[in-house]
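Hi V.,

Quick status before I head out on leave. The structure for the redesign project is tokenized and pasted below; the design run finished overnight.
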């Protein structure tokens, strides 16, 4: 990568100085700089003889950059997912140029990866006994708790440096994706299904049916096996690619259904809905549902997850209906509002 940049820099310098040199002389200058070394990519070798600086595509240039940065993913089953994740900017390698795809990933690292991929900004105070403000992962754990991805353990620990198990990852992922209208037998046909802990089974089945965390070729799930960095990147990249992600959303029309989306930020019901009804179905809100409309009649929720529901009007007796599969951590509503569960 640096060699390519050096070549481009030299060419630009030559143009700026308006020095007329022929292509042979230009090649000689570059040979002095690079000592005739080749810039190697796994699929193509670039030298000053065959590198067309004006016509190299963004894809080719990116592949050269990635190959020079991540030195240990060639031939790995997750190479394409890792490279794509690097392009999206939510994952990088180590300082020595490696990615270490088969190294296990910790709970704190998985938290950071998911926050980065989904661009989570909300946060809340945490008081886990093993998470301190000086820790590099402190802010990411604040974000992932606010988004509902993690909740910690009963003894008030987070265990940030523990490798995250596959069943734990399934539980986290299920909180970041839409889960309504998901059909299939899940992981029930795998030979070790009974070893999956009860608290994780619904999440494992949902995530399995959506194709994010499947079993192994030999027909097992291995729920207690630590997740690897490569597996984590594949899972999160596919979430970003396949879920309908909105960064904040305003509902402005009445008697319509807003459905099948992951909202990062707040989902707002605005005054323009008038005194009509609002239907929210199969939606994950990684933030709050804020009902700003002063005259809205009813807000119906089905297959909805959100951090909080906030009703801003103190005078509107809005009716909030919880249908199937609604999970809301808290509510901030005036006494006049009606909540039907």
């Amino acid at each position: 990568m640096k060699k390519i940049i050096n070549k481009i820099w030299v060419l630009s310098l030559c143009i700026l100085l308006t020095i007329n040199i022929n292509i042979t002389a230009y090649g000689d200058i570059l040979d002095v700089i690079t000592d005739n070394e080749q810039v190697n990519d796994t699929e193509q070798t670039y030298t000053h003889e065959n590198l067309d600086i004006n016509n190299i595509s963004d894809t080719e240039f990116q592949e050269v950059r990635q190959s020079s940065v991540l030195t240990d993913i060639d031939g790995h089953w997750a190479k394409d997912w890792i490279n794509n994740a690097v392009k999206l900017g939510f994952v990088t390698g180590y300082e020595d140029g490696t990615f270490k795809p088969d190294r296990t990933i910790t709970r704190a690292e998985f938290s950071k990866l998911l926050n980065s991929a989904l661009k989570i900004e909300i946060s809340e105070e945490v008081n886990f006994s093993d998470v301190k403000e000086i820790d590099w992962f402190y802010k990411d754990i604040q974000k992932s708790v606010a988004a509902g991805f993690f909740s910690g353990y009963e003894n008030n620990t987070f265990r940030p440096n523990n490798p995250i198990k596959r069943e734990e990852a399934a539980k986290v992922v299920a909180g970041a994706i839409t889960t309504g209208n998901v059909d299939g037998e899940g992981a029930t046909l795998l030979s070790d299904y009974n070893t999956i802990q009860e608290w994780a089974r619904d999440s494992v089945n949902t995530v399995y049916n959506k194709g994010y965390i499947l079993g192994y070729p030999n027909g097992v799930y291995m729920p207690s096996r630590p997740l690897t960095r490569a597996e984590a990147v594949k899972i999160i990249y596919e979430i970003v690619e396949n879920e309908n992600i909105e960064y904040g959303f305003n509902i402005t029309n009445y008697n319509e259904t807003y459905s099948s989306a992951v909202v990062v930020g707040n989902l707002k019901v605005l005054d323009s809905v008038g005194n009509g009804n609002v239907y929210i179905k199969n939606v994950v809100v990684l933030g709050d549902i804020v009902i700003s409309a002063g005259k809205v009649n009813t807000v119906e929720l089905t297959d909805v997850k959100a951090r909080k529901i906030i009703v801003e009007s103190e005078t509107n007796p809005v009716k909030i209906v919880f249908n199937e599969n609604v999970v809301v951590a808290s509510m901030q509503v005036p006494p006049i509002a009606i909540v039907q569960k």
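Above is the designed sequence. Residues 1-68 have pLDDT under 50 and may be disordered.

G. will cover questions while I'm gone.

Best,
W.
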